[in-house]
């Protein structure tokens, strides 16, 4: 959430910056509501002061034995006015919150202004695209013989868009997860295993609600109004809701593996099939809490931790700095790490690292204190480290051999009992 004091002081500048994310944004209604709320609070406070003064006077009159009926009638009338204004104030404040909570975070000044993702700025490339000496296959074609996952049987259980890993595919998925966590732990992250179901307030705090409500899964249970997490970012941010952290605790670096659940509406076409876009996927998440002045350096270290994983897997990737219109709702700066997928003939994001500044902290009321100073809001940062589904696609497609087998990257072999090559399944294994 944005700081209303900053909006009051710099409304024109902030509106222009927000419009670089969403051109339709206008602050006129918000400012009008803010003015009405402040005026009404002033009027209500004046009435309450008047009532208190009259109440004190009534006490004095009673002690003197004087008639207080007229004054008490006036106090009663003032009370009615206060109750009416309090109800009006409650309605206005709700309308104000509804306006401000739908505003995205302000992009940093060094972000390119554009609504076109094609204008995202490539800031780094690692390795080169593999050149094949044989007709290569996409991950679904490879899977016909490798039997690593089964979408048809998953559809029987859950419907379209839900993956089911099997055999070596399931083991390879776990190998990736363990390998990624080992990198982050080495780099100073504390591993968490957070809940997969969270309260509405927790989703709100991370910026998922109310804007993205239609993309979430929730329980149809009046006794447990909980939501499935779309990313571990939500749960990790929620761990410190309404807390005041100590300065010496910061930065906090967290890493967590969780399944993630999202309604992926409109996913169609050959480029979106298989593991490319699903309702459930596995992801290792990085999440950090920091002092404001430390967040830029922490952001770079998170990018490096994500890159270290891909470099260990010897995968070609590139880093892109997202333009204003392509950044997430809560982000002030985002770098996407994208791997090359031969079967899709394009780059796909496997990590998105974002500095959310104090946006989530305001919504979640997460602060820290410098000594005896007034508490300040922390900065929060998040990043995939990494999402495994597209990473699995990258591994299979970039490490395939002419006979349909797939070479296992060296860094994963110790997690797979030394397995070096995943070979096509022989016979009628179903």
UniProtKB/TrEMBL annotation:
Q: Which GO terms describe its molecular function?
A: ATP binding; serine-tRNA ligase activity
Which reaction does this enzyme catalyse, per its entry? tRNA(Sec) + L-serine + ATP = L-seryl-tRNA(Sec) + AMP + diphosphate + H(+); tRNA(Ser) + L-serine + ATP = L-seryl-tRNA(Ser) + AMP + diphosphate + H(+)
Q: Per its record, how is this protein called by name?
A: Serine--tRNA ligase
Keywords in alphabetical order: Aminoacyl-tRNA synthetase, ATP-binding, Cytoplasm, Ligase, Nucleotide-binding, Protein biosynthesis
Pathway named in the protein's UniProt entry: Aminoacyl-tRNA biosynthesis; selenocysteinyl-tRNA(Sec) biosynthesis; L-seryl-tRNA(Sec) from L-serine and tRNA(Sec): step 1/1
Query: Which parts of the sequence bind ATP?
Result: 262-264, 349-352
What parts of the sequence cross the membrane? Answer: none
Organism (species)? Estrella lausannensis
Q: Which GO terms describe its cellular component?
A: cytoplasm
Q: Where in the cell is it found?
A: Cytoplasm
Q: Which Gene3D superfamilies match?
A: Bira Bifunctional Protein, Domain 2, Serine-tRNA synthetase, tRNA binding domain
UniProt lists the family membership as follows: Belongs to the class-II aminoacyl-tRNA synthetase family. Type-1 seryl-tRNA synthetase subfamily.
Q: Which gene encodes it?
A: serS
EC numbers: 6.1.1.11
Q: Does the keyword Protein biosynthesis apply?
A: yes
Please describe what this protein does. Catalyzes the attachment of serine to tRNA(Ser). Is also able to aminoacylate tRNA(Sec) with serine, to form the misacylated tRNA L-seryl-tRNA(Sec), which will be further converted into selenocysteinyl-tRNA(Sec).
């Amino acid at each position: 959430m944005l700081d209303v004091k900053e909006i009051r002081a710099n409304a024109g500048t902030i509106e222009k910056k927000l419009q670089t994310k969403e051109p339709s944004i206008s602050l006129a209604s918000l400012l009008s509501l803010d003015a009405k709320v402040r005026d009404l609070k002033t009027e209500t406070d004046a009435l309450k002061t008047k009532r208190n003064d009259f109440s004190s006077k009534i006490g004095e009159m009673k002690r003197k034995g004087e008639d207080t009926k007229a004054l008490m009638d006036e106090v009663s009338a003032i009370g009615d006015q206060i109750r009416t204004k309090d109800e009006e104030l409650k309605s206005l404040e709700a309308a104000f919150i509804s306006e401000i909570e739908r505003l995205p975070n302000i992009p940093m000044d060094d972000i390119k202004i554009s609504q076109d993702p094609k204008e995202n700025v490539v800031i780094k490339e690692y390795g080169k695209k593999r050149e094949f000496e044989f007709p290569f296959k996409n991950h679904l074609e490879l899977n016909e013989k490798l039997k690593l996952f089964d979408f048809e049987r998953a559809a029987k259980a859950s419907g379209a868009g839900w993956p089911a890993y099997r055999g070596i595919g399931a083991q390879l998925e776990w190998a990736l997860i363990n390998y990624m966590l080992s990198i982050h732990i080495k780099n100073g992250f504390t591993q968490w295993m957070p809940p997969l179901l969270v309260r509405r307030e927790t989703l709100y705090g991370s910026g998922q609600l109310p804007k993205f409500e239609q993309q979430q899964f929730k329980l149809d249970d009046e006794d447990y109004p909980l939501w499935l997490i779309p990313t571990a970012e939500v749960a990790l941010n929620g761990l410190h809701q309404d807390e005041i952290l100590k300065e010496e605790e910061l930065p906090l670096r967290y890493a967590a593996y969780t399944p993630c659940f999202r309604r992926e509406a409109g996913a169609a076409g050959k480029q979106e099939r298989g593991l490319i876009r699903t309702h459930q996927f596995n992801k290792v998440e990085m999440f950090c809490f920091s002092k404001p002045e430390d967040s830029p350096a922490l952001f770079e270290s998170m990018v490096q931790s994500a890159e270290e994983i891909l470099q260990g897997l010897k995968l070609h990737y590139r880093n892109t700095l997202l333009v204003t219109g392509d950044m997430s709702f809560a982000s002030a700066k985002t770098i996407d790490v994208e791997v090359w997928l031969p079967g899709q003939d394009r780059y796909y994001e496997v990590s998105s690292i974002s500095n959310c500044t104090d946006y989530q902290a305001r919504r979640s009321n997460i602060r820290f204190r410098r000594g005896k100073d007034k508490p300040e809001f922390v900065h929060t940062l998040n990043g995939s480290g990494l999402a495994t589904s597209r990473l699995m696609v990258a591994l299979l497609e970039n490490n395939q051999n002419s006979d349909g087998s797939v070479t296992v990257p060296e860094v994963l072999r110790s997690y797979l009992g030394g397995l070096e090559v995943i070979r096509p399944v022989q016979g009628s294994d179903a």
